[in-house]
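ok so heres the complex, two chains, lmk if somethin looks off
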Amino acid sequence: GAVVSQHPSWVICKSGTSVKIECRSLDFQATTMFWYRQFPKQSLMLMATSNEGSKATYEQGVEKDKFLINHASLTLSTLTVTSAHPEDSSFYICSARGAPAGDYEQYFGPGTRLTVT
Amino acid sequence: TQLLEQSPQFLSIQEGENLTVYCNSSSVFSSLQWYRQEPGEGPVLLVTVVTGGEVKKLKRLTFQFGDARKDSSLHITAAQPGDTGLYLCAGARHTGKLIFGQGTTLQVKP
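and the predicted structre for the whole thing:
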């Protein structure tokens, strides 16, 4: 149980275009989903927290107009990187929390590798 | 400000050796999780510790949560090449957010 998927697993896009990444909880309802980015050989950096049906809460320094997050249902959250630039190239990972995972645990998706050329 | 200090950040050992990874903070966490991550994949949850002083064992891995719930350690006995990976500790806030340590890259040589 507690499986989280992401789509796509990797994407290459041209500078200036927008890219949407999906995060789905497959066997549980995710009341809260989190989006992280990770640079090579570094730890995860939290970008934003999204609760189903409400606006996402962004961490300091993360541009909400650039990284659009939508959590329209209890099993799906999306991250859209708008007007992508090469510096947005990174590994984006989502996590989900909710029954039956319990209050403490987040389960992570497999990540999406974004390369902006 | 890094709220959760993880050390060491890099560790290269021979198969069969023991090792300990530490996570320390001045803040109290409601729980602490340990993850293992392989290149190009998401972190996989190894264990969650909730109670101060708690010790959990997962085969050759032993996890300990400090009495004050500010620090934790991961001890691996008789490391194997399959243990190679990035180990991450993460402290949970009451808000549900996870604060990650810097990570420990472990390489176990055969």
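quick notes: Chain A touches chain B through 25 residues (CB under 8 Å). thats all i got rn
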